[in-house]
Design goal:
- There is one protein chain.
- With 154 residues, the chain is an alpha+beta fold.
- The protein is 51% helix and 16% strand.
- It has six helices and five strands.
- The chain has a three-stranded antiparallel sheet, with no helix packed on it. It has a two-stranded antiparallel ribbon with strand order 1-2.
- The C terminus is likely disordered.
Length: 154
């Protein structure tokens, strides 16, 4: 059916594993690796599309839904704007889900909505920097946040 199991010997489909493999395959294809000879990409897309429609009714979280939409769009499948809008408007959506929604808009070729999501996300980001320095033989990791230097220790 195009899906992948959690365990190699299992015959039961895993929605999350299938979405994760879709993302990995999309990266491989972007790098020029021909995966279509060993993986049935159209069946994987069909499986994810079918499962996405019943995801929230089957007890999966909004995060699983958002991730699967992202993986599917990254794999080159256009999804309906309403499926991505659902993520953005869902009261349970948090930073990761909004990131997946923004990326889904981008891969769905709607950069205007992707930019709007980015603007929303930037409101939550505090500018900081991290440094790694060597004091004698001890490596120390520190970061600057809200104007204060804080040791984070290694």
């Amino acid at each position: 059916d195009g899906s992948f199991p959690y365990w190699p010997s299992s015959t039961e489909s895993s929605f999350f594993v299938s979405a994760r493999i879709a993302e990995i395959l999309s990266v491989a294809m972007e790098k020029g690796i021909n995966v279509s000879e060993i993986i049935d990409i159209p069946s994987l897309k069909e499986y994810l599309s079918k499962e996405i429609s019943k995801t929230l009714n089957s007890g999966h979280s909004i995060k699983s839904y958002a991730y699967a939409i992202y993986a599917l769009t990254r794999l080159g499948k256009t999804v309906s704007e309403s499926e991505i809008d659902f993520i953005v408007k869902n009261e349970k959506s948090d930073f990761p889900e909004l990131c997946y929604a923004g990326l889904s808009y981008h891969y769905n070729r709607n950069d205007e909505k992707a930019k709007n999501i980015a603007k929303t996300l930037f409101k939550y980001i505090l500018m900081n920097y991290r440094i790694l320095c060597k004091e004698s033989e001890i490596w120390k990791f520190e970061y600057m946040s809200a104007g204060r230097h804080k040791p984070a220790g290694i």
